[in-house]
Amino acid sequence: MKTAKLLYGAAYYDEYLPVDRIETDMEMIKKAGMNVIRIAESTWSTWEPQEGVFDFTHLHRMLSCSKKHDIQVIVGTPTYAVPTWLARKYPDIITETHDGPGRYGHRQNMDIAHPMYLKHAERIIRRLMEEVQPYDHVIGFQLDNETKSYDTCSSYAQKKFVDYVRTLFHDDLSLLNEAWGLDYWSNRINSWEDFPDVRGTINASLGAEYHKFQRKLVSEFLAWQSGIVQEYARPEQFITQNFDFDWRGYSFGLQPEVDQWDAAKPLTVAGCDIYHPSAQDLTGKEIAFGGAIARSLKKDNYLVLETEAQGNHGWLSYPGQLRLQAFSHLANGANCVEYWHWHSIHNAIESYWKGVLSHNLKENATYRETCRIGADFAAYSTHLVNLKKRCSAAILLDNASLDALQWFPIPDGPAYNDVFRWVFDALYEMNVECDILSAEDDIDLFSQYRLLITPALYSVSDRLANALKDYVQAGGTLLSTFKTAVADKMLKIYHDDLPHGLTEVFGMTYDQFTDAVQVGLQANVAKPAPSEKISSKTAAEAQTESSAVDMTKLVSQPCASEPKQDVSNHCVHNWMELLLPGTAETLAFYDHTHWGSHAAITGNRFGQGYAAYLGCYTDGDVLKKLLSFLCEKAGVAREEAVYPLIVKRGINDLQKEITYYFNYSEEPQETIYHGADARVLLAGQDSPHGGNSAAPNEIPTALVKEGDRLSLSRWDFLILEEV
Q1: pLDDT by residue (tens digit) across 140-199?
Q2: Tell me, what's the pLDDT at 702?
Q3: pLDDT of residue 551
Q4: pLDDT in the model for residue 685
Q5: Which of 66, 307, 370, 512 is the most exposed place for a label (fewest CB within 10 A)?
Q6: Distance, CA of 603 to CA of 586 (rounded, Å)
Q7: Phi and psi (nearest 5°) for 122?
Q8: Rounded Cα–Cα distance for residues 329 and 295 (Å)
Q9: Cis peptide before 78 (omega within 30 of 0)
Q10: Residue 701 has what pLDDT?
Q11: Residues whose CB falls within 8 Å of the CB of residue 444, separated by 6 or more in sequence, listed in order
């Protein structure tokens, strides 16, 4: 969705404030250059204090005052936290989970399948929409907030699940029992009336299917809300959702609880929240991966509906970092940056999740930096809004594979999102921008990319395997990691050679694996392990062809992240698959007394393309070496610079290339510019290229040409526009 200008603002909660200061706040918001606030998503009990009794005083105060100050508004439906009267009247609205019955108090603990919850949620949504309709400065609506199933295992949800399963298997129990292997431990279901409580299952197929069903509940819930909101919304008003990500104390990876591609279908524009470490720990990686996923949901620009201003304990940004962060979001394709939240809360669980203003509600250093960002956004909006990315590489993500590694984790090893971030972060540090694709929804898009990467793609349907085969056959370059193509979509392990359906593509197979203890890698100097011929080219023929990647330089030295040990090269960790090359060339063998005859990394020419398989979890140095080789083979362009100097590119509405340079470090950085003549659009505060925020229509004219040296100070940035 295109927007006319960059949106900049914060969540605002008049109902939380200890004093009446709405006029002061709106004046300060306007002074900061903010043009949008987000309201209403958290306070059902304020709008409906008792059943059928409504009080929208705070809502109208916020809408009226924001209109007076020419500030646009995004209104959220207040359904992600239920009022006390509703929990008292229907105690089972507080859902049962795998951990047992819930208790009132927390948000997001209700059963979204409960008919009375849905009845009352619909009523408050409709009443809210009626109240909002007269205000023409309301530009859009947010459905719920960070929506999930909240692990509902209620009787309502489980009954719906049985109906779902009966449809899935055409009411045929024999098909169900075969697909899930329920003969094991006498788990066979011989009557629909005997369908067990899902919370006790030891069967991964059943358990993962229920988790998939829970994700389906989320998609249905958001589609249901969208339908209601559309009855009231004007054509120009958008509908969004604030998607979040896997949480490790900050945004980390693919959200396990939501199929976000499916859930985004009824939305006009994707929205998300992105939180990350700050100060000395700021890397930009979370901003990049979160943006890549959000951008990929609708294949369009997106809205950052929440990000940190001061944030949680330890997240206070160094001077200049808040500005660096704001433009980092734009560089990934965001059209909106909103802070959670405007004012710090004075009570309850998030009292120390600080907003733009501290608890004294006065101007501070953070506020003053937001003022500068607001001025920048206003001055350069025409040049930076609606940035379109053109990525040649993509990463394929899959919720079913994530479920699989939760059911069958690598002992003491990486979870699914660790493998995803291992790959994504390596590309990021190499300055290779990428899109994120869904294994369920984006199969038809493979041909758009020169390089496709599948991290731990455990679950592979025949359709997906054939699509990957066709992709490589037609000239694509594929990299798959360990734990690829092990099981079908119901997590039943295939009984043929692994990786299922792809042995010809990769030119290798394997049937054994183990943990990696004091294991390194060695270059292609050992003889391959004997294996059967996989295709027309013999293993011997394949091995006589020289490898295009020189692993010797890498494996002859200890991996950078390893401590000094007697054994020089322990760069393989936790997991290793003993690969048996057929037509594949061996890029690296295991450096191990007993496993040294086995391939660790292979590459295979198949059709017009190339497929590499990484059979172990390695240090980042190894992964980057392999990715560098594959990028070159695939024709994926790389920047000269590497992390902590990050480069991002896109095309603006003026059909000009915009190039962002970010220095995510304490140390000054330099690089050489490569590209068409460009002008300096905006430079960071300490940059030798200038530093003052320009007033509107006062765009700098300094030119940058091929071969010019660019210098960035610490935590600095530089934005260029093609002339």
Answers
A1: 999 999 999 999 999 999 999 999 999 999 999 999 999 999 999 999 999 999 999 999
A2: 86
A3: 56
A4: 63
A5: 512
A6: 6
A7: -60, -40
A8: 11
A9: no
A10: 62
A11: none
Measured between alpha carbons, how far is 285 from 428 in angstroms, rounded to an integer? 7
Q: Is the dihedral of CA 475, 476, 479, 485 positive or negative?
A: negative
- Residue 502 structure tokens: 């792809």
Element containing residue 466 per DSSP (H, E): helix 462-473
Output the CA torsion 636→639→645→646 (10° steps): -40
Specify the pLDDT at position 37. 98
- Locate 404 and state its tokens: 């699989």
Closest CA to 691 of 147, 264, 320, 245: 320
Could you tell me which of 294, 362, 394 has the C-alpha nearest to residue 334?
294
* Residue owning tokens 């006319």: 4
The dihedral built from the CA positions of residue 306, 311, 315 and 319, taken in this order, carries a sign that is: positive
Confirm whether pTM is higher than 0.70: yes
DSSP annotation of 562? S
pLDDT digits (tens, 9 = 90+) for 684-717: 865 444 444 444 344 456 899 999 999 999 999 9
Handedness of CA 177, 178, 182, 184 (dihedral sign): positive
Are the C-beta atoms of 510 and 485 separated by less than 8 Å? no
Nearby residues of 230 by Cβ (< 8 Å), 6 or more positions away: 239
If 0-12 CB within 10 Å is exposed, 13-18 middle and 19+ buried, where does residue 479 land?
buried
Alpha helix locations (H) across 573-710?
620-634
Give all domains of the chain, ordered by start, each with its CATH number.
Answer: 393-634 (3.40.50.880), 645-722 (2.60.40.1180)
How many angstroms separate the CA atoms of 611 and 475, rounded? 10
Residues 181, 185, 191, 195: is their CA dihedral positive or negative? negative
Kindly state the helix (H) or strand (E) to which residue 136 belongs, with its residue range: none
CB-CB contact of 679 with 721 (8 Å): yes
Residue 586 · residue 602 · CB < 8 Å:
yes
**Hey, what are 539's tokens?**
């293993």
**Rounded distance, CA 291 to CA 146, Å?**
16
Residue type, position 544, single letter = T
For residue 721, the cross-strand partners are 658, 679
Number of neighbours of residue 247 by Cβ within 10 angstroms = 13
Cβ atoms within 10 Å, residue 390? 11
Tokens at 340, concatenated: 């959670």
The Cα 421–Cα 436 span in angstroms is 12
SS3 percent helix, strand, coil of the chain, rounded to 5, is 35, 20, 45
